[in-house]
C-alpha cells in the first residue's frame, strides 16, 4: 500500500496518548477483501487492555470537560483539517481494508470529516434554559453537561465515518471516547487516532482498542462503571445483547441497528429520477449499508418500463478491485457474506421470482469468492426471505403494487424502521405518505439522505438516538436542573 504519509498505517492500539501492542504479543491479520491478501498484522488486545483504555479516558475526562467550548472546538477543527489534508491516503487505507471503490472511499472520508467540522461548531451552541419559578423566592435553571466516558462499537462497512460521527459529538460535548472498531477494518480507526494525536487532542481523550475478541471487549465496555454511555452501530441481534449488558449499570445508549428499507415508485413519479435514486441507494458500497434499498415496490402501470430502465442503468456497473479505475462495485466483506446473498437470491428464484439481469464479471482473484455480480430480480413477494432480511449485497429485488394503501402496509410490515424512500409528483401524497411511513428517515424523490446537518437514526427495532444535526450532541449530555432558593 503506497501512502504519501506512511505514518497513517499503524498496527498498535492507541490509548492514554500512547501506542500499545498486546502484552502477550498476540496479533490478528487484516486482509484485503478484493484480493484475499494480508495487509498487516494488528495488535490483538484483550479485556485488560480495554479496561486500561477506559481508565485513561476516565482520567482525562474532567480536564477535557473543563475546557471552554471554543478550546474543544479548536481541537476538533484541527482534526478536521488534518483529515481532509490526508483524504487520499485515508481513502487508500479504507479501500484496501474494506473493498469499496476509491471514489466512494474518498467520499466517506469527507462525509466523516463533515461531522467533525459540524460538531466543532455545535460545541458552541449547547443551550440551557431559565424556567419561570412557581414563587418569587426561587430561580430555576437548566444546564447541560458532558455525560462522561463514552464507548463505541462500530462496523466494517463505514470504518471511518461511523467512528467520526460518534466521536465528534462526544468530544464536542466534553466527553472522552473509547472506540472498538470492527476486526475486519481497524486501520481506518487507527489512522484517525494518528491524526487526533497530531491535532494535539490531549492524551486519553480519544482512544482506540483493536481486538479479534469482540464479545470480550464489548463486555468490558458495557460493564465498566467508568463508562457512562455506549454508542453502537451494527446488527439488531448484537444490539439487543449490548442493551441487556448495559442495563446492569443503567448506561445511556444509542443504537443504530438493522434496516429493511423500502423504495417505492408511484406511477406519477419522474422515472429518470427514480432510477438515479435506486442506483445510488441500492448499489453504494456494493449494497452493504444499513440504509440501502432492500425492497423495491413499483406501481403496476410503470413496472415493465422501470425494469427496462433499471437494467440499462445496471449495465454500467463494473465489479472489481476498488482501487482499479472504472470500478464502482467492490467485493463483499467476506466469503460468508457473499454466500448469504447467494442464498437469498436462490430462495427467491426457487419461489417464483424472475431473474431480470445478472452482470458478467471478469474477476481474477484466485479462489476469492467475495465478489457478487449486480443482480436484478422481479416478482418478489413478502413470503420470500429476501424481502425479510437485509440483503447487504448488490441485488435489486422488485415487487409490484396497485394501491397506495397496499404498498404502505407492505412497507411498514417489518420490525425495522431505519430508512425509507418513495418517488411521486403528488404533493398531497408527499405529506400523507411520508407521515404514515414508520421510519426514522424518509427520502422523498431522493436516494442520498444522510448528511451531518440532518438527524440520522431509526425507530422500532432499528434502534434509537440520533447522529448528526443539532440533535446529535444531545445524546452525549445530561440535563441538570438547579433550583436557587432564598431570594
UniProtKB/TrEMBL annotation:
<dbReference type="InterPro" id="IPR016160">
    <property type="entry name" value="Ald_DH_CS_CYS"/>
</dbReference>
<dbReference type="InterPro" id="IPR016162">
    <property type="entry name" value="Ald_DH_N"/>
</dbReference>
<protein>
    <submittedName>
        <fullName>NADP-dependent succinate-semialdehyde dehydrogenase</fullName>
    </submittedName>
</protein>
<dbReference type="InterPro" id="IPR016163">
    <property type="entry name" value="Ald_DH_C"/>
</dbReference>
<dbReference type="Pfam" id="PF00171">
    <property type="entry name" value="Aldedh"/>
</dbReference>
<feature type="domain" description="Aldehyde dehydrogenase">
    <location>
        <begin position="19"/>
        <end position="481"/>
    </location>
</feature>
<dbReference type="InterPro" id="IPR015590">
    <property type="entry name" value="Aldehyde_DH_dom"/>
</dbReference>
<feature type="active site">
    <location>
        <position position="256"/>
    </location>
</feature>
<dbReference type="InterPro" id="IPR016161">
    <property type="entry name" value="Ald_DH/histidinol_DH"/>
</dbReference>
<keyword id="KW-0560">Oxidoreductase</keyword>
<dbReference type="InterPro" id="IPR029510">
    <property type="entry name" value="Ald_DH_CS_GLU"/>
</dbReference>
<dbReference type="InterPro" id="IPR050740">
    <property type="entry name" value="Aldehyde_DH_Superfamily"/>
</dbReference>
<comment type="similarity">
    <text>Belongs to the aldehyde dehydrogenase family.</text>
</comment>
<dbReference type="InterPro" id="IPR010102">
    <property type="entry name" value="Succ_semiAld_DH"/>
</dbReference>
Amino acid at each position: 500500500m503506497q501512502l504519501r504519509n506512511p505514518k497513517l498505517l499503524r498496527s498498535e492500539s492507541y490509548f492514554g496518548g500512547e501506542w500499545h501492542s498486546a502484552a502477550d504479543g498476540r496479533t490478528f491479520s487484516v486482509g484485503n477483501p478484493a484480493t484475499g491478501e494480508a495487509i498487516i498484522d494488528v495488535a490483538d488486545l484483550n479485556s485488560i487492555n480495554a479496561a486500561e483504555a477506559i481508565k485513561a479516558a476516565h482520567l482525562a475526562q474532567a480536564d477535557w470537560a473543563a475546557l471552554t467550548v471554543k478550546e474543544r472546538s479548536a481541537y476538533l477543527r484541527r482534526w478536521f483539517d488534518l483529515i481532509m489534508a490526508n483524504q487520499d491516503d485515508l481513502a487508500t487505507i479504507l479501500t484496501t481494508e474494506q473493498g469499496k471503490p476509491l471514489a466512494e472511499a474518498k467520499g466517506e472520508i469527507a462525509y466523516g470529516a463533515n461531522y467533525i467540522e459540524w460538531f466543532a461548531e455545535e460545541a458552541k451552541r449547547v443551550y440551557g434554559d431559565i424556567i419561570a419559578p412557581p414563587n418569587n423566592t426561587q430561580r430555576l435553571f437548566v444546564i447541560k453537561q458532558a455525560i462522561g466516558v463514552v464507548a463505541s462499537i462500530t462496523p466494517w462497512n463505514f470504518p471511518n465515518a461511523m467512528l467520526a460521527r460518534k466521536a465528534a459529538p462526544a468530544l464536542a460535548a466534553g466527553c472522552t471516547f473509547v472506540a472498538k472498531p470492527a476486526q475486519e477494518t481497524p486501520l481506518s480507526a487507527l489512522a484517525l487516532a494518528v491524526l487526533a494525536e497530531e491535532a494535539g487532542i490531549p492524551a486519553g481523550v480519544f482512544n482506540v482498542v483493536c481486538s479479534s475478541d469482540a464479545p470480550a471487549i464489548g463486555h468490558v465496555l458495557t460493564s465498566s462503571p467508568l463508562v457512562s454511555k455506549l454508542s453502537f452501530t451494527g446488527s439488531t441481534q448484537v444490539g439487543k445483547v449490548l442493551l441487556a449488558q448495559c442495563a446492569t449499570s443503567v448506561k445511556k445508549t444509542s443504537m443504530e441497528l438493522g434496516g429493511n428499507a423500502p423504495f417505492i415508485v408511484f406511477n406519477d413519479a419522474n422515472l429518470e429520477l427514480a432510477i438515479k435514486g435506486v442506483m445510488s441507494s441500492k448499489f453504494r458500497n456494493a449494497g452493504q449499508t444499513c440504509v440501502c434499498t432492500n425492497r423495491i415496490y413499483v406501481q403496476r402501470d410503470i413496472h415493465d418500463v422501470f425494469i427496462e430502465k433499471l437494467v440499462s442503468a445496471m449495465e454500467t456497473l463494473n465489479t472489481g478491485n476498488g482501487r482499479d479505475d472504472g470500478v464502482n462495485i467492490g467485493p463483499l466483506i467476506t466469503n460468508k457474506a457473499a454466500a448469504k446473498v447467494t442464498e437469498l437470491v436462490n430462495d427467491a428464484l426457487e419461489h417464483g421470482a424472475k431473474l431480470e439481469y445478472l452482470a458478467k464479471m471478469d474477476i481474477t482473484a484466485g479462489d476469492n469468492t467475495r465478489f457478487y455480480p449486480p443482480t436484478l430480480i422481479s416478482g418478489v413477494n413478502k413470503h420470500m426471505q429476501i424481502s425479510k432480511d437485509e440483503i447487504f449485497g448488490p441485488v435489486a429485488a422488485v415487487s409490484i403494487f396497485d394501491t397506495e394503501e397496499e404498498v404502505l402496509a407492505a412497507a411498514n410490515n417489518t420490525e425495522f424502521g431505519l430508512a425509507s424512500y418513495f418517488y411521486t409528483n403528488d404533493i398531497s401524497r408527499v405529506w400523507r405518505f411520508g407521515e404514515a411511513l414508520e421510519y426514522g428517515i424518509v427520502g422523498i424523490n431522493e436516494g442520498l439522505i444522510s448528511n451531518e446537518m440532518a438527524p440520522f437514526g431509526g425507530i422500532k427495532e432499528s434502534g434509537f438516538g440520533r447522529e448528526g444535526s443539532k440533535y446529535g450532541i444531545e445524546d452525549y449530555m445530561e440535563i441538570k436542573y438547579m433550583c436557587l432558593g432564598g431570594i
